[in-house]
């Protein structure tokens, strides 16, 4: 018994006490490390991460065998390597920060949002006009790309196009996307009941799980839905089928009625509810239809 007591006094006396804040800190760090690893796994950073691990193992071996020249080179290259990694991963880092900024928990802490759509919920007439235009363009296989804005500002994408500022009508949409017209190439951005810009350039999705038969138009539609809360309507020029991209998920082969249902899902989302409801964790992608 005395031996156990002396062992405890000698070795356990220096063990720091565990506080509630320490437990909370461990949970937060574990949460962050887990999601950083998931982010690395789902981007091209995974290949770079494996390369960095290989280099680190090589440096450890060099240290064990006292290869001083290699260690000196590694020491001087490390600081430049960190800058190089930031430059190489700039698109992925930007996307990760955008996703972090879009979380409802952080949004509820901010008193305002720049470029927020206050009265941007579109009318039933706009839904009908978009659906009618897509149905007509699908029949004659006219390609179309229509981005419907919600709360996230699309100013940087509007600047790449030409200002239109016209009321949404099926005739106007069909005329814009008609072959060999000045405005047919690119995307149309709709805010509220008005077409804001045409011929806009959108970011392409780098999601490797997308079907290989999808072209640039569909990848652009998914790409803009990954970085904003907008809903994108795509009409295929090859098949005439209607698709919708939302939150990085592509819903294909929709009927005009299905398209109206999809648009009504975001039309009926009150701004107040989206601003103030409690954060329920990281967003999860739905399965493709």
From TrEMBL:
<feature type="region of interest" description="Disordered">
    <location>
        <begin position="270"/>
        <end position="289"/>
    </location>
</feature>
<keyword id="KW-0548">Nucleotidyltransferase</keyword>
<dbReference type="GO" id="GO:0106408">
    <property type="term" value="F:diadenylate cyclase activity"/>
</dbReference>
<protein>
    <recommendedName>
        <fullName>Diadenylate cyclase</fullName>
        <ecNumber>2.7.7.85</ecNumber>
    </recommendedName>
</protein>
<feature type="domain" description="DAC">
    <location>
        <begin position="90"/>
        <end position="256"/>
    </location>
</feature>
<keyword id="KW-0472">Membrane</keyword>
<dbReference type="InterPro" id="IPR034701">
    <property type="entry name" value="CdaA"/>
</dbReference>
<dbReference type="Pfam" id="PF02457">
    <property type="entry name" value="DAC"/>
</dbReference>
<dbReference type="InterPro" id="IPR003390">
    <property type="entry name" value="DNA_integrity_scan_DisA_N"/>
</dbReference>
<keyword id="KW-0067">ATP-binding</keyword>
<dbReference type="InterPro" id="IPR036888">
    <property type="entry name" value="DNA_integrity_DisA_N_sf"/>
</dbReference>
<keyword id="KW-0547">Nucleotide-binding</keyword>
<feature type="transmembrane region" description="Helical">
    <location>
        <begin position="47"/>
        <end position="65"/>
    </location>
</feature>
<feature type="transmembrane region" description="Helical">
    <location>
        <begin position="20"/>
        <end position="40"/>
    </location>
</feature>
<dbReference type="InterPro" id="IPR045585">
    <property type="entry name" value="CdaA_N"/>
</dbReference>
<comment type="subunit">
    <text>Probably a homodimer.</text>
</comment>
<dbReference type="GO" id="GO:0005524">
    <property type="term" value="F:ATP binding"/>
</dbReference>
<dbReference type="InterPro" id="IPR050338">
    <property type="entry name" value="DisA"/>
</dbReference>
<keyword id="KW-1003">Cell membrane</keyword>
<keyword id="KW-0812">Transmembrane</keyword>
<dbReference type="Pfam" id="PF19293">
    <property type="entry name" value="CdaA_N"/>
</dbReference>
<keyword id="KW-1133">Transmembrane helix</keyword>
<keyword id="KW-0808">Transferase</keyword>
<comment type="function">
    <text>Catalyzes the condensation of 2 ATP molecules into cyclic di-AMP (c-di-AMP), a second messenger used to regulate differing processes in different bacteria.</text>
</comment>
<comment type="similarity">
    <text>Belongs to the adenylate cyclase family. DacA/CdaA subfamily.</text>
</comment>
<dbReference type="InterPro" id="IPR014046">
    <property type="entry name" value="C-di-AMP_synthase"/>
</dbReference>
<dbReference type="GO" id="GO:0004016">
    <property type="term" value="F:adenylate cyclase activity"/>
</dbReference>
<dbReference type="GO" id="GO:0006171">
    <property type="term" value="P:cAMP biosynthetic process"/>
</dbReference>
<feature type="transmembrane region" description="Helical">
    <location>
        <begin position="71"/>
        <end position="89"/>
    </location>
</feature>
């Amino acid at each position: 018994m005395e031996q156990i007591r002396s062992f405890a006094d000698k070795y356990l006396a220096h063990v720091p006490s565990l506080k509630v804040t320490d437990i909370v800190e461990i949970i937060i760090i574990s949460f962050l490390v887990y999601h950083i690893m998931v982010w690395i796994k789902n981007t091209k950073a995974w290949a770079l991460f494996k390369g960095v691990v290989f280099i680190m193992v090589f440096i450890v071996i060099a240290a064990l065998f006292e290869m001083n020249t290699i260690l000196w080179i590694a020491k001087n290259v490390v600081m430049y390597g960190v800058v190089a990694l930031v430059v190489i991963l700039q698109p992925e880092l930007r996307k990760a920060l955008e996703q972090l900024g879009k979380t409802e928990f952080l949004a509820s802490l901010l008193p305002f949002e720049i470029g927020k759509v206050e009265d941007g919920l579109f009318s039933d007439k706009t839904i009908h006009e978009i659906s009618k235009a897509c149905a007509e363009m699908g029949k004659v296989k006219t390609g179309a790309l229509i981005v419907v804005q919600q709360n996230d500002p699309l100013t940087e994408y509007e600047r790449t196009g030409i200002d239109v500022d016209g009321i949404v009508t099926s005739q106007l949409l069909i005329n814009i996307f008609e072959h060999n017209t000045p405005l047919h190439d690119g995307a149309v951005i709709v805010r509220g009941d008005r077409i804001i810009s045409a011929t806009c350039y959108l970011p392409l999705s780098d999601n490797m799980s997308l079907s290989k038969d999808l072209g640039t138009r569909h990848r652009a539609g998914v790409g803009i839905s990954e970085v904003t809360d907008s809903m994108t309507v795509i009409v295929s020029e090859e098949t005439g089928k209607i698709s919708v991209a939302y939150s990085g998920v592509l819903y294909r082969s929709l009927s005009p009625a299905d398209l109206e249902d999809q648009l009504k899902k975001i039309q009926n989302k009150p701004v107040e509810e989206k601003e103030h409801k409690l954060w329920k964790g990281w967003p999860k992608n739905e399965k493709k239809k």
